[in-house]
Write a structure and sequence with these properties.
The chain is mainly alpha-helical and about 300 residues long. It is built from 12 helices and no strands. Helices cover about 70% and strands about 0% of the residues.
């Protein structure tokens, strides 16, 4: 039932997913460890809801505009499930903002497959990445994402290789001038401690959610890649970029400190696209139903464990 209903893209499908997103968000707001019903908490949760909504609509736009999936809403449904499975991802305003900046950069990179305004897109991607680096120095890894797109879409020239660097430097330079005027230049790129431990993922909800996502990611990524490489040749370049999106996001979150699941938000977009493409290739309707029901049910139940 779920697989058949969401195997199409229509306003009613999107509206229903938005309602599910709202329910999942309210549930997380009530069950998070620091949940308390005060004016400041409600205000903070309202702001974060707006950030989640921006990420949701940006994800939808990027997938539709760049044809990263067929005309269905599997990716949006899975995105909502991920928010439910990792409720701390709705809690950290800093990560929510960083994720939006990354999506703005990704939006320009995925659109490089067209021949239009290449230099403008590369500058924009670099600019958003520069903002990420200002907020989190580990954002440096997303430079790899940019140059992977340049090489992948065969846009590599001397000028195109320099333009992203100009984009990256621009916000850093502007902020540096501002700090210099205030005699606070040492705050430009503060050192950030790294922590590669994963002990905080030892709670039962985290173990269940991570086991489900990692297990299915390992199950789907290779078959989906083989199928796309041999059948959907026109989609091959975009698929490579999705995989690089996943890899660079993983490398970004590994050194983050105080891991609690909030940092996993950077994996939501590429993982949803990978799962969606596998579901599209699978002709077994029962598998699609079990897959979607499993993620939807888990996104609700982990909040009560």
């Amino acid at each position: 039932m779920l697989a058949k209903f969401f195997n199409k893209s229509s306003p009613i499908n999107t509206l229903l997913i938005i309602i599910v997103l709202f329910v999942v968000y309210i549930l997380a707001s009530c069950t998070l460890p620091n949940a308390h019903f005060s004016l400041s908490y409600v205000g903070n949760r309202t702001v974060n809801l707006s950030l989640v909504a921006i990420s949701f609509f940006l994800t939808n736009f990027i997938i539709r505009k760049n044809e990263l999936s067929k005309e269905n809403t599997y990716a949006l449904l899975l995105l909502v499930c991920f928010y439910g499975m990792f409720p701390h991802s709705t809690e950290n305003s800093n990560y929510l903002i960083l994720h939006i900046l990354l999506l703005f950069s990704a939006r320009r990179l995925y659109s490089l497959k067209s021949m239009r305004r290449t230099k403008e897109k590369l500058f924009d991607a670099g600019f958003w990445t520069g903002l990420i680096m200002l907020l989190n120095p580990f954002g440096l890894i997303f430079i790899v994402f940019i140059y992977s797109a340049i090489i992948n879409y065969k846009k590599f020239t001397l000028r195109n290789s320099i333009i992203p660097l100009v984009g990256i430097i621009t916000p850093i330079f502007i902020y540096g001038v501002y700090l210099f005027a205030l005699d606070r230049f040492d705050e430009l790129l503060p050192s950030s401690p790294a922590d590669f431990s994963i002990y905080n993922y030892g709670t039962l909800p985290s173990i269940i959610a991570l086991t489900l996502v990692i297990g299915f990611l390992l199950w789907t990524i290779i078959p989906a890649t083989i199928k796309i490489m041999t059948v959907k040749l026109e989609f091959k370049s975009s698929w490579y970029l999705v995989l690089m999106h996943l890899l660079t996001s993983l490398l970004f979150i590994l050194p983050q400190i105080n891991k609690n699941g909030a940092e996993l938000i950077f994996l939501f977009f590429p993982t949803a696209v990978i799962f969606t493409n596998y579901l599209q290739q699978n002709s077994e309707n029962w598998f699609k139903e079990v897959f979607l029901y499993l993620f939807l049910i888990t996104s609700i139940t982990v909040n009560f464990l």
